[in-house]
UniProtKB/TrEMBL annotation:
Region annotation Disordered: where it falls in the sequence: 215-252
Biased composition (Acidic residues): 217-230
Compositional bias annotation for Polar residues: 237-252
Record-given protein name: Uncharacterized protein
Length: 252
């Protein structure tokens, strides 16, 4: 709350605001939330997910003339393994408040494709992704929705976005609605799910010797886009349950 109030006092979210501002704010919120876990949110960093996704496509459908390279993603969620945050476990994408619905749909497809590539790579290392799976965040400015991505038999399925998205207040007048909303409960449920998911991955990687999948450079430059994420069509998958947020992770 102290951080949010400071942002309001500084007028950080007064429109128009770039996508970079929102990405920075949400990554800080995630890292405050995850401070007592081995998971970190790294903003605007290079990810190998796009390279891995391209390789899987070429393996299935044949090579192309397009080049494959690591690309910057809005937020890369990583766990600390052997004192390094190289192991990428999810990608979160954000858009600014001016993004069109079409941009949001393209963004959702990209987010699912890259997170699926990461998930399949973890499965190849021994993770049971029908039981251990990520919660993916997609944001538009100060609003955010979550959905799950997991294996159902022979396919990967995405659960429906949370029924009530969460948000951060942009001005003092929004604080009452923020405190009465489900935002804090949803964020705490998200944290607990991610904590247990990271533990499952760490247990698998301890027994797996090849080089960890993820970022192995320390470049971290800025790159702004203008986009959104409200009212996205629900992907095929499972309904979220009403009431207390719950992401369906099998209890350990």
């Amino acid at each position: 709350m102290n951080q949010i109030i400071l942002w309001i006092e500084l007028g950080m979210f007064v429109s128009p605001t770039s996508e970079h501002v929102y990405v920075t704010a949400w990554s800080l919120i995630f890292n405050i939330l995850l401070v007592d876990t081995n998971t970190r949110a790294i903003p605007r960093t290079y990810s190998k997910a796009s390279t891995l996704a391209r390789r899987r496509m070429e393996t299935a459908f044949g090579s192309t003339t397009s080049t494959s390279c690591d690309r910057k993603e809005d937020i890369s969620i990583r766990i600390r393994v052997e004192n390094q945050c190289k192991t990428e476990i999810a990608i979160f994408e954000f858009k600014s408040s001016t993004a069109t619905m079409e941009i949001c749909r393209r963004q959702q497809k990209k987010s699912m494709r890259l997170s699926a590539a990461i998930l399949l790579d973890l499965e190849a290392r021994g993770l049971d992704i029908s039981k251990s799976f990520p919660v993916i965040a997609e944001g538009k400015a100060l609003s955010m929705n979550f959905y799950t991505l997991r294996r159902f038999d022979d396919v990967l399925g995405a659960g429906r976005p949370t029924r009530k998205g969460i948000f951060l207040p942009s001005q003092v007048e929004d604080l009452k609605a923020f405190l009465e909303s489900n935002t804090m409960m949803t964020l705490l449920a998200f944290k607990e799910h991610l904590r247990r998911y990271a533990i499952d991955i760490t247990d698998v990687l301890v027994a797996f010797t090849p080089t960890s999948f993820g970022y192995d450079n320390n470049e971290d430059e800025d790159e702004d886009e203008d986009d959104q994420i409200d009212d996205l069509p629900s992907p095929l998958g499972t309904e979220t349950q009403p009431g207390t947020p719950h992401f369906g992770l099998t209890q350990q």
